[in-house]
Amino acid sequence: MTARTRSRPRTSRTTRPRRRAGARRSFPVLRPEFIGLAIAALTIAAIPFVVDVRAVAAETRDWLMRTFGLGLFLIAALSVAGGLSVSRRAYAQRLTFARRAAGAIALTLFAWGALGLNHAHWTLGGVDFRGATLGGAVGRQLVAGILGKLGWVSLLVVGTALVAPGPTRALARNAPGWLEIAWARRWPHRAIRGAGRYVGFIFRHPRNRSAESGVVIGGTLRERLQPRPVPTFEENPVAIRPSIEPGAPMSPIGSGAAAQFLRERLPEPGPESEPEPEPMASTGDDDAHGEPQQLALALGQHPGWQLPALELLNAPQISSSRKHDNAARAQLIVDTLASFAVDATVVEINEGPTVTQFGVEPGWEIRYRDLPLKDDSGRPQLAPDGRPRTQRVEMGRTRVRVNKITALQNDLALALAAPSLRIEAPVPGRAIVGIEVPNDSATVVTLRNVMETKEFQDLARKTKLALALGKGVSGVPIVADLARMPHLLIAGATGSGKSVCMNSIIAGIMMEATPNDVRFVMVDPKRVELTAYKGIPHLAFSEVIVDVDRVVGTLQAVVAEMESRYKKFAAVAVRNIDTYNRHPRVLKKLAYWIVIIDELADLMMAAPFEVEKLVCRLAQLARATGIHLVVATQRPSVDVVTGLIKANFPTRIAFAVTSMTDSRTILDTGGAEKLLGRGDMLYMPTDAAKPIRLQGVYVSDAEVERIVSFWTDDRFRALAPETADNLLEAAMSELDDDGGARLVESDPLVERARALALQHRRVSPSLFQRRLRVGYSKATKLIEILEEEGIVGPREGGESRVVLAATADEDLN
Questions:
Q1: pLDDT for position 238
Q2: What pLDDT does residue 450 have?
Q3: Do 157 and 96 reside in the same domain of the chain?
Q4: pLDDT, tens only, 718-772
Q5: Looking at 146, 163, 180, which one is the last position of a domain?
Q6: Distance between CA 771 and CA 779 in Å, rounded?
Q7: Is residue 72 part of a domain?
Q8: 364 plus 462 within the same structural domain
Q9: pLDDT band for position 216 (50/70/90)?
Q10: How many helices and strands, by DSSP H and E, does the chain display?
Q11: Residue, of 252 and 670, whose pLDDT is higher
Q12: Statement: residue 424 has pLDDT above 60
């Protein structure tokens, strides 16, 4: 240790570097902090010179105000900001300091130019700004001419980009989307229309003018501008979250060729690429009546019908990062098929809200043959072990059959650990086989999420019956026009999402159509699903039909409306409702009628023949008159969804059912028994050969209550259209106490019953039900009428009765 210490060279005092005396005795006032504060203080101290000076410096002050105007204060603010920046040593980061300084100067020049565009009745010292601009001669030159104004506007863009590059970039990226949403919601149109109304009102009323101050709003217009009381809601919009919480971390990515192929093409989720979730709505008591409700109701302050704003619906839910590795699952599918000697390749992946579709392209089955190798002399070549050498030669190849992939459905489900798996072979319009695998977590598809899309907005401009159904397996929104369906049949087990689908159809139409455009006829035997819409002005009748005994009369009233419309069409020689509403002789347009039947099975049990006959007649004839049916049932059996009903409902939706038989009953094919429930459905449009799988939209009870509260507000009470209760009363007057058609002796059905009874020795209600195709109650009434006429005898213990007329004829013979 001593040797090492002595070996180090020592520095003598004479060779040590000396510090400069000036550096050792630096003055504190020359430090940057004091310099910046001194600049700011001097600038602030110079401001009173401009405001109040003595006569000696008045001419200098006036010259400065005429030349620079109020821009002197902008220069002072810039100087203070610069001094404070210097005091904080902001110049240490040279590039950032230079960028922000240049941006501040550009924004200062922009504000100076804005002052140069204004003339005010202000006086400062001896300068009157009516002759000069607020920006002085310099501010006037900044905005002189067209080129000057263009340069002035560019200063704002350049300044904001330099001062705040992040927010400016986000604004430039999102501004087109915001403008598109504003244009789709027709905010500019409504603003221009409202301004035009107010200006026209002022110019049409000379008493609102004043000779001295120009146009003044008078008392009548002021009364119109007074805000009306806005109804409040008891519940806030509830943000909907997925029902399944995030589970285990992602599995490791496979190492095969398919995984590498998809890893290069799939976007990897990262912290910068993930969208940030929107802020949640407040749930406090003070914010119970938030901006969305107030904005939507404020639109209704003008006279006439107004459509509710989309803010009444829950905001779209942004899904979190992907919790499953699609590349690993694709590699697993390829390896599983290869283990069963099936050559296939995953060529695309479509990730939807509930399932992910893997597009599998079948490979080739290659046939080989081993041929012996021979030398030049034609003798077989021998290997070192003495065996003849061979060469494998390809003899031919054929495409792998699709049924080999579909036969491995259960094996693929086992390999992927999926609860259920559906194979679509082939995908319509594509040369691939679609393997649909459930996602680890489902994404909620809200009604507003689909209604804000371009597809729905384009369809809503063409028709008043636009339906937002949901999103497909690739995340593409699925929309449809009810007028083209023209009727819709919905089936599904309890809890599969059938009632939510009907609520989404009703709510979507109410968001886009007024009561003058669309009217509803609602039949709800369960009494809990559609009663929430009680009191809305869209109802064709004044109530929601909940009694099964009144269903036949309700359908007969709709048939009467259909026949009345056909008579109106014949009077003006048109064929459908669209042509009738555009006819010049038509003064009152007809509204579309949508008949909503929530549970068909209950109606078929009460009056099967009457309900089937009326429903089929409406389905066959009511399309041209603008009357459409939306029928739902949770028991899609052949006795409920009969062949005649199914033939008249070409458009169908199947939710999760319990068996393949039910799936074939509703769709004529299997697949609905493998759905996941909670809105997962198969949609069969009229122009598709195979059903389309999609995740239906979700509408909460709070959203329905807000929409109903909007339409049932008092401001719409004077605009409510007339109901068709007279048709319902007339139809109900023709029915008996049990809801069936009232029978008289001259009724053709009674004549047929007499003829049928005379052909048998004994008759019973079941005989009349089978042969006359009537319900049990009506068959019993027919027997009672025949008993009063003396054709059949009294009841003796069973259901059958003795035919007395036939017995008398035998005695005479």
A1: 32
A2: 93
A3: yes
A4: 888 888 989 888 887 776 655 555 555 567 788 888 888 888 888 888 888 888 8
A5: 163
A6: 10
A7: yes
A8: no
A9: very low
A10: 31, 21
A11: 670
A12: yes
Distances from the Cα of 708 to the Cαs of 185, 452, 507, 510, 515, in angstroms?
A: 20, 21, 9, 9, 13
Q: Of 303, 299, 330, 302, which Cα lies nearest the Cα of 312?
A: 299
Name the most confidently modeled range: 85-94, 266-275, 757-766. 757-766
Amino acid at 459: L
Element (H, E) at 433: strand 433-438
Query: Distance between alpha carbon 220 and the CA centroid of its chain, in Å?
Result: 41
Question: For residue 743, what are its two tokens?
Answer: 């029978």
Distance CA 562, CA 603 (A): 21
Of 674, 696, 727, the residue at which a domain comes to its end is 727
pLDDT, tens digit, for every residue of 320-364?
A: 545 567 888 999 999 999 999 899 999 999 888 889 999 999 998
* Cβ–Cβ < 8 Å for 503, 704: yes
**First vs last Cα of the chain: how many Å apart?**
150
Phi and psi at 350, nearest 5°, equal -120, 110
**441 CB-side CA count, 13 A:** 19
The amino acid sitting at 255 is S
* pLDDT class of 233 with cuts at 50, 70, 90: very low
- Of 139-143, 509-513, 545-549, 761-765, give the lowest mean pLDDT range: 139-143
**What is the tens place of the pLDDT at every residue in 94-118?**
788 788 888 888 888 888 888 777 7
Number of domains in the chain: 4
- CA-based nearest residue to 237, from 146, 310, 137: 310
| Residue 298 CB neighbour total at 10 angstroms | 15
Say what the pLDDT of residue 210 is. Answer: 37
Q: Write the DSSP assignment of 149-215 as a string of letters.
A: HHHHHHHHHHHHHHH-HHHHHHHHHHHHHHHHHHHHTTHHHHHHHHHHHHHHHHHH-GGGEETTTEE
Predicted confidence band at 799 (pLDDT cuts at 50, 70, 90)?
Answer: confident
Cα(43)–Cα(626) distance, integer angstroms = 76
At 358, the amino acid letter reads F
Given a contact cutoff of 8 angstroms between Cβ atoms, the answer to whether 711 and 536 are in contact is: yes
- Cα 196 to Cα 184, 187, 304: the distances in Å are 20, 14, 16
Q: 776: domain range? A: 743-812
State the maximum Cα–Cα separation within the chain, in Å, rounded to a whole number: 160
Residue 119 counted as domain residue = yes
What token pair was written down for 397?
């190849």
Cβ neighbors of 453 (< 8 A, separation 6 or more) are 477, 479
Same domain, 466 and 569: yes
Mean pLDDT of 263-283: 42
Strands 762-763 and 627-633: unpaired
Q: Comparing C-alpha atoms, which of 668, 655, 565, 575 is closest to residue 618? A: 565
Residue 384 has a pLDDT of 85
Cα gap 360→348, rounded to integer Å: 7
Task: Give the ranges where 278-408 is alpha helix by DSSP (H).
Answer: 291-298, 326-339, 402-406
Residue 19 has pLDDT above 50, yes or no: no
SS3 per residue for 206-223: HHHEECCCEECCCHHHHH
For the entire predicted model, the pTM comes to 0.58
Calculate the alpha carbon distances from 89 to 121, 162, 707 in Å: 42, 19, 57
240 and 317 in contact (C-beta within 8 Å)? yes
How many whole angstroms separate alpha carbon 539 and alpha carbon 812?
Answer: 62
Task: Verify that 33 and 150 share a domain, yes or no.
Answer: yes
Residue 808 has pLDDT above 60, yes or no: no
Q: Nearest Cα to 35, choosing from 102, 107, 91?
A: 91
The span from the CA of 13 to the CA of 20, in Å, is 16
Q: What are the beta bridge partners of residue 351?
A: 356
Q: Is 32 exposed, middle or buried (0-12, 13-18, 19+ CB in 10 A)?
A: middle
- Dist CA 101 CA 110 (whole Å): 14
Residue type, 595: V
Rg, C-alpha atoms of the chain: 41
The answer, yes or no, to whether residue 798 has pLDDT greater than 80, is no
